[in-house]
Amino acid sequence: MPLRDDRSEKTYESLCKEFEGSVKLTDISNWKPLTKAELLQVHSESFVNDLLDEERSVARIIECYELFDSEGRPNRYDSDEASKPLSQMTKDILLQGRGTAFSIELALKERMVFFLGGGMHHAMEDFGRGFCLVNDIVIGIRNLQSTNKIKNAWVIDIDAHKGDGTASLTTSDASISTLSIHMEKGWPLDVGSGEGPWRLPSTIDIPIGYKEEDQYLEKLEMGLKKLESESKDLPEMVVVVAGADPFEKDALPSTNKLNLTKDQMLERDLLVYNFLKERNIPQCWLMAGGYGPDSWTIYDQFIKTLMREA
Ligand SMILES: [Zn+2]
Fold first, then answer.
1. Could you give the 3-state DSSP secondary structure of residue 138?
2. Residue 192 above 60 pLDDT?
3. 68 found inside a domain
4. Strand (E) positions, the chain?
5. Would you say residue 127 lies in a domain?
6. Are residues 107 and 113 in contact, defined by beta-carbon separation less than 8 angstroms?
């Protein structure tokens, strides 16, 4: 589950095994969590103030990770077994957001970066949601825009769930276009969630119906071409929200309406990667969702394929 996430470690260890010597860790000892000014590019002042307050941030974490059920019982969290206080989680997430911002900027130079973290695409202007506290994707893009390093960007979201936070945060921003391919049903989870910012459309939404996996790759390719034909200019940066949760072995019950095989997952990733590479667009990939013991193998097979070709 999201709170016990070892996907990055497993992927890193596996890469080290095959590419001994050429895999190096980035020194993050000087990294600082995302700052107030960076958060305010995307989130409301009241939400940001809460996140930066030790006590109020705990309430925001509980809300975002649904740590209590509707009857007030602990859910996914056992305070007796916790290794650190919930207030530390906010700081850890803001530090992970620094990783996203760093990686998106690095992709300008390297052309292709895969960050083993990040992709908090459900985070809205005023609150965190669906295990996503802050929208590191849009923050990373706005960082580059506010320092005049890029003008426009795309977000290509191939997670099983709709990138609803990203869509709502960029809905009136013509400089960021979004494509989301996702399960037709299953998000928002709660049918009773009614109207809200999570209903706002992406620039291009591609819902995949139950048992329509055989149409997934074709629809994704058509969506990419449509995004290109509808854009005045090609983007100067693309962030790929590369959730592994469309995988048939994903363990999150709500993702069982989309079940791509491991080969289809690799085809998905290579389709997006090659589309952007052929157009010489810098791309930064983020892990986003992926649950259970097998999800790390999706990142592993894709990164290894690229490294073997390099
Ligand atoms: Zn997801």
1. helix
2. no
3. no
4. 112-115, 153-157, 176-183, 204-208, 238-241, 283-286
5. yes
6. yes
Q: Which domain holds residue 140?
A: 9-20+97-191+200-309
Counted domains in the chain: 1
* Residue given tokens 């589950």 in the structure block: 1
Output the six-digit token pair for 185.
């049903």
Q: Please, which residues have CB less than 5 A from ligand 1, an ion?
A: 159-161, 243, 245, 289
User: Confidence band (pLDDT; 50, 70, 90) for 212?
Assistant: very high
Q: How far is the CA of 130 from the centre of ligand 1 (A)?
A: 9
Q: What is the CATH number of the domain that holds 255?
A: 3.40.800.20
DSSP label at 180? E
Residue 27 forms part of a structural domain = no
Does residue 40 form part of some domain?
A: no
Q: What is the largest CA-CA distance in the chain?
A: 55
The answer to whether 188 touches 164, Cβ cutoff 8 Å, is: yes
| pLDDT over 90 at 105, yes or no | yes
Give 8 Cα–ligand 1 centroid separation in angstroms: 16
Residues in the chain: 310
Task: Determine the distance separating the centroid of ligand 1 and the alpha carbon of 243, expressed in angstroms.
Answer: 6
